[in-house]
Write a structure and sequence with these properties.
Elements: E1 3-6, E2 13-16, E3 20-25, E4 33-44, E5 47-55, E6 62-64, E7 75-83, E8 90-91, E9 95-97, E10 101-105
Parallel strand pairs: 3-10
Antiparallel strand pairs: 1-2, 3-6, 4-5, 4-7, 7-8, 7-9
Length: 130
């Protein structure tokens, strides 16, 4: 899950955490999404790293890496979904993970695309339907 590096201060081998790669699994062209901002935070012992990524297409990737402490690969992340033409955004709760590949799925971002079409309605006979 990681590789060893030599700490020049102590002369000891230190294991570097495997990088976390994050992406958004969403169709930014068909959905009214402006961006998905992902914040990843690793906080164990003396190690504390935070990085934010601004994803604007399904091809955008965010790469995060931190030295590990206390033999723990767990990090916390949250994300904010910004919608086109809207002032209000969706903010996720903080989530704990140890996955190397972090995918924010369209079902998790607070939006659902629904196509609605009239069925067998004759609008000359029916003025409205529910």
């Amino acid at each position: 899950m990681g590789r060893f590096l030599l700490d020049r201060r102590s002369g000891r081998s230190v294991l570097q955490a495997a990088p976390v790669t994050t992406r958004a699994n969403a169709d930014f062209d068909k959905l009214p999404l402006n961006s998905v901002e992902v914040k990843i935070e690793y906080k164990q012992g003396a190690e504390h790293s935070i990085k934010e990524f601004d994803l604007r297409s399904p091809d955008d990737l965010g790469k995060f890496a931190s030295f590990i402490a206390n033999d723990s690969y767990k990090y916390k992340y949250s994300y904010q979904v910004n919608y086109k033409g809207e002032a209000q955004a969706y903010q996720s709760p903080e989530i704990e993970s140890d996955e190397e590949n972090l995918t924010i799925n369209v079902g998790d971002i607070g939006i659902l695309l629904v196509d609605v079409a009239p069925g067998d309605l004759n609008f000359n006979q029916v003025s409205e339907a529910q």
